[in-house]
Amino acid sequence: MQSDHRIQRIAVIGGGTAGWIAASALARKVGRTCSIHLVESPDIPTIGVGEATIPGIIDFLKFLGVDQSDFIEHVQGTIKLGIRFNDWHHIGHRYWHPFGPFGVFIDRAPFYHVWHKARAQGLDVDLSHFNLEIAMAEQNKFIYPDNKLGIAQTLRYALHFDAGLVAKYLRAYSEHLGVVRLERNVSGVTQRADGMIDEVVFKEGDRLQADLFIDCTGFRGLLIEGTLKTGYVDWTPLIPNNRAVAIQVEGQLPRRPFTTATARPAGWQWRIPLQHRIGTGYVYSSEHATDEEAVQDLLGQLGDAKPITDPRFIKYVTGRRRLFWHKNVVALGLASGFIEPLESTSIHLVCSGMYALLDHFPDKQFDPANIEHYNRTVIDEYEKVRDFIILHYCTTERDDTEYWRRCRQIELPEDLRERIDLYKRTGRIFQRRHEVFVELSWFFVMHGMGLAPQSYDPLVDGSNWEEVKKVMAAMRRNIASQVDAAPTHDSFFPDKPRQS
Ligand code: FAD
């Protein structure tokens, strides 16, 4: 490769979570060879509601070389062991999607097959007996896997955090590694003859030239859509929600080490406990509830928790950009699309989009085959997340509102339909390529939403069942003793939550 073809200047446009994740990852990986600028508007606020994550965030912090405890302290973070879903299958029903293993493989069979057999035999096999994350979450306990007691070493967790504080933390990290931050409003661009973006032009009068632009401008997609008009694939027919209202409320003890997602008449509500406060919100369909109805419903569910902010309304269209990378622009975060926050995937998709960009890092010739491969990889990942989200809706048995009746009628993407059919017939689940969620995530949601397989893996019958029952009893004792030994989640935080 000719050295003068190397990318030398990168401009990240947008200073929300996506912009600062991009800037910090780029600074970490190519900061020595490229100049990196981040432009953020002093006038356009960030979306500020992305507060729950999946375990990939822990890997991302490791990739940056950031000390996890320091990060958690600065972003008012708490631990997330999974999501508790209330009222999704029917009102009064609840299930868990935890992170982390479910039992252990027995004679090569995933434990859920063994578990299906045990259930069929009428054994007492509650999920929490075999999944440490659920068992801990139910008792508000937690312990880091590298603890001195030598317990919970397989515990998988993610974080809840304050999005504004995360941007601030990653900004300090990035600036320390040489990223230059500009407070400007982008008002236009200049393009070269081949359509590549040459410069962004600022309302303030100056401009910034770069070889590669990362569009992190949120829903507006200033470069990827505003300039390059790549187009948008609308998934509203598959996932009907298109609005959210968010309200922050006073913190409460105990701080739960999990996210709660409660199904409501026209969507669902989140509850994300941070150290200093709780984030709540209602994701809903404007066809089935007005903004006023949504906010009243949300306020009605707060119990004795006092709001500390006014309601904030957000409009969106579920879907993705037709292309995530076009010419010399790569879109990340909300600029690249949005699949609702039910499984907290958006921030993860920023990180994985960033890793994919590093795997496909271009030179100034921007090889179309490289770009096409990037797009295919990321599109694949988005579509798998979309299907996993649809699974939560299409399997409901609720018919108490027009909204839920509509969810039961969703016309499923073919791959999702096949996965559900295979599970129902055989109990089998296979993870797809470029898929964030592993087989166990699919298992927890399929089982949680009441899908019951007609059979289990016949190879399970080849194992000595008396021995298997002993192994199961030992697993159960082991989990119970680890939960007993673990401290409370709250014991990790020195201060009480904020009270008015
Ligand atoms: P934004 O935060 O909107 O930032 C856009 C940036 O672009 C801003 O800095 C703005 O100033 C700048 N900008 C825009 N126009 C210009 C211009 N002309 N000139 C200069 N700068 C400009 N994700 C999760 O992972 N977990 C969750 O629990 C979660 N919950 C969510 C709940 C809701 C209701 C919504 C809508 C999203 C949620 N998300 C969640 C998604 C998450 O919030 C976003 O993925 C994340 O915050 C990244 O946003 P962003 O940086 O792409 O955009």
Automatic annotation (TrEMBL):
GO terms for molecular function: monooxygenase activity; nucleotide binding. 7-chloro-L-tryptophan binds at residue 80. FAD binds at residues 15-18, 186, 334, 347. It holds the Pfam family Trp_halogenase. Its EC number is 1.14.19.9. L-tryptophan binds at residue 343. Transmembrane segments: none annotated. Keywords: FAD, Flavoprotein, Nucleotide-binding, Oxidoreductase. The active site is at residue 80. This is Tryptophan halogenase. It comes from Povalibacter uvarum.
